[in-house]
Design brief:
Growth Hormone, Chain: A; mainly alpha; globular; 0% strand; 81% helix; transmembrane transporter activity; 460 residues
């Protein structure tokens, strides 16, 4: 039992830190891989299970919804229960669920085990980032997050290619089978290499987590048309949102502590990742549809172009982490949003106005687009986490991850609604990037005014 934070008694050695980083990377890389590679197998799954594509697509939706709604809860869990223990529990859930997916011969069971798999990923990822936060210095944390961002970005990039290769082995069940040996190795390493640490011991707001899931699920169902949008539906959803907000304000142990958002940099870091992830997912979801339907590109060509985008994003996220200490995190975030505005405009010009069909031009554009998405992403995460005490690292990590996944969900909904009107999507990408850039400018002004005021007070 504990009442105060329990951090590692002494700094980890260089080799121990690297082993810890390897362990958390082995677990967390499977989260984006399983998010993207399943898209390749949806058709095969639908045929094998004799269901429609619309029904099998719930495997994607449920994964994103669970990931978004459970992460604040898992952040609390790893602060209270122990970050190492929570990481191992999440990895074990992911492992068991993957085995369940392999054995499923009905869509219902496949969705159930896919939801459990998402729970495992949602528990594991905040624990991984919190372990890095409490076991590294501020400078080392930025470097470690850069490597983690590089690895997870590459995981998302290779997901579709890995999925195609695994299905080529004969069955979509290999998509889940590949997780088993990696997770077994990850769990074994975690027992040996990861030191235990705790944050503040608090009660867990299980009801709040259920309400958050209801809010996200209700919003998605209405936006996608799965539930008819009526006055009663909107009122019911609004009441649910109000109930969740009131519960978070009144409870002694909130799932999402609103007090964190009094920190300007915490708020900016979280809003920035939501906007940035919207733009990034809109790019990788919209371009394949457009290039396939309008440019008649093959799936292999489109896959290679998206690989170019993801590699550029991953490399630039790592470079951005190295540059953050020199040029400042807000500057890199603002640069990323500015580049996103330019890339969104060029997507529209090249694909809609000029109707360019040169693969080299597409490649150059996607390299720039990937750089736009990656250059500021580590700064967003670091700025968010360093704004709160180390003992709250788990809770802050969970909130950050939720904002990231909400951006992804909103993007997938927008693409589903407007994929016949890509001009609207490109305009939304540019507009949200402009809002992000403006947010950074306002933040810098507020901080400068605060610094000058404190200087005047000191002189007085």
């Amino acid at each position: 039992m504990w009442s105060r934070s329990m951090e590692p008694k002494e700094p980890l050695s260089f080799s121990r830190r690297n082993l810890l980083l390897l362990t958390v990377m082995m677990g967390t890389i499977l989260v984006p891989i399983n998010s993207t590679m399943i898209s390749i197998g949806l058709t095969s799954m639908a045929q094998d299970l004799h269901v429609s594509i619309a029904s099998i697509a719930w495997l994607v939706t449920i994964y994103l919804l669970i990931m978004a709604s459970i992460q604040p809860l898992s952040g609390k869990l790893n602060d209270t229960w122990g970050r190492k223990r929570t990481f191992i529990a999440g990895a074990s859930l992911f492992l068991v669920a993957s085995v369940g997916c392999i054995a499923s011969d009905q869509l219902l069971w496949l969705i159930v085990f896919r939801a459990i798999q998402a729970m495992g990923g949602a528990v594991m990822y905040p624990a991984a980032t919190a372990l890095i936060r409490v076991n590294t210095s501020d400078r080392g944390m930025t470097h470690a997050f850069g490597i983690l961002s590089l690895v997870t970005g590459l995981g998302a990039a290779v997901g579709p290619l890995l999925g195609a290769a695994l299905i080529g082995l004969g069955s979509w069940r290999w998509l889940f089978g590949v997780n088993v040996p990696v997770m077994l190795a990850c769990i074994a390493l975690a027992f040996v290499a990861v030191p235990e640490s705790h944050g503040k011991r608090t009660r867990i707001d299980w009801g709040g987590s259920g309400l958050l899931l209801g809010v996200l699920l209700g919003g998605v169902l209405m936006l996608t048309g799965e539930v008819q949008v009526s006055v009663y539906a909107v009122i019911g959803w609004t009441l649910l949102v109000g109930w969740f907000a009131l519960r978070q304000k009144k409870t002694e142990y909130p799932l999402i502590p609103f007090v964190f958002f009094r920190k300007v940099r915490f708020t900016v870091g979280n809003v920035s990742i939501l906007l940035s992830n919207f733009v990034m997912y809109a790019t990788i979801l919209t371009l394949p549809i457009f290039l396939r339907q309008r440019q008649d590109m093959s799936l292999q060509e489109i896959g290679l172009l998206l690989l170019v985008f993801s590699i550029s994003m991953s490399v630039c996220s790592w470079l951005g982490s190295a540059a953050a200490t020199r040029v400042g995190k807000p500057a890199l975030i603002g640069l990323g949003f500015g580049m996103n505005i330019v890339s969104s405009m060029f997507y529209w010009l090249i694909l809609r106005v000029w109707m360019v069909q040169d693969a080299w031009i597409f490649s150059a554009l996607l390299i720039f687009g990937g750089a736009s998405a990656g250059v500021g992403i580590v700064s967003m995460q670091t700025m968010s986490l360093e704004s709160v005490p180390r003992e709250d690292a788990g809770s802050a990590s969970g909130i950050y991850s939720t904002f990231r996944y909400v951006g992804s969900i909103l993007s997938s909904v927008a693409v589903a609604l407007f994929y016949h009107q890509v001009d609207v999507i490109f305009f939304a990408m540019a507009s949200l990037s402009a809002i992000g850039a403006l947010l950074i400018v306002v933040t810098q002004v507020i901080e400068q005014v605060g610094v000058r005021s404190s200087v005047v007070d000191d002189k007085a």
